[in-house]
Amino acid sequence: MGIGKIELSEARIIANKVREHISPAMDRIEIAGSVRREKPVVGDIELVALVADREKLLKLISDVGQTIKPSVPGVIPWSPKPDSRYIRVRLSEGMNLDLFIAKPENWGGLFLMRTGSAAGADGNAFNGFTPGCFARWKKLSGGGRMTEVMPTMPDGTQLPVYEEQDFFDLLEMDFVPPVERTGRNVIKKYVRQQ
Questions:
Q1: What angle do CA 33, 97, 59 make, to 5 degrees?
Q2: Can you give the residue ranges of every domain in the chain?
């Protein structure tokens, strides 16, 4: 496989190794993305974390790879800002690590979002499961939206989502296993019957 594209079994080993290595700087850290969804081929490693010690985190990250500028093609060395909520690392194994930093009150929303879903049939990732959840929230809340990865009422009140299940409860849905988060059509299967 090409650089950055590896089989799930190998990606899982790398993800667990990195998670264990940087966990001393964390209050909580979990694997998200395509590894959590168990896709056969993985393009990057995604972790969601609650950071306990940011200085220690940056030191531990430097042991596993080079921090690079996020959201740009290529590998441009970059020092994360002290309040970064997203850190990208080019791992020594040749693939990228995307580390998303949550707050306790938005953990569930960020973990759900970063677990994500595959791209739609048209290749557009924004047609997937998570945007479908956000659209369902907008409908159920009467026009609410997502701000800071938290469900927000039309009046601006943010609702904490400490766990993914908290968000599913707001959506009147049962928990959707990550492997089934393939597209919007899955949502109907998990909506609770009234």
A1: 135
A2: 6-101, 117-190
Which DSSP state fits 128? S
pLDDT in tens, 33-88: 999 999 999 999 999 999 999 999 999 999 999 999 988 887 899 999 888 999 99
- What is the bridge-based pairing of β-strands 145-147 and 6-7? unpaired
User: Would you give the distance in Å from CA 3 to the centre of its chain?
Assistant: 22
The CATH architecture assigned to 117-190 reads 2-Layer Sandwich (3.30)
Pairing of the two strands 44-51 and 41-42: unpaired
pLDDT at 11 (0 to 100): 97
Domain with residues 6-101, CATH architecture: 2-Layer Sandwich (3.30)
End-to-end CA distance of the chain: 47
Tokens read off for 126: 């924004």
Structure tokens at 67: 């921090």
Distance between CA atoms of 178 and 171, rounded to whole angstroms? 16
Tell me the C-alpha distance between 118 and 133, whole Å.
14
Q: Compute the distance between CA of residue 28 and CA of residue 102 in angstroms, rounded to an integer.
A: 10
Among residues 99, 103, 81, 101, the alpha carbon closest in space to that of 90 is found at: 99
Residues 6+ apart with CB under 8 A from 57: 22, 25, 26, 51
Q: Could you report the per-residue pLDDT of 158-181, keeping only the tens digit for each? A: 999 999 999 999 999 999 999 999
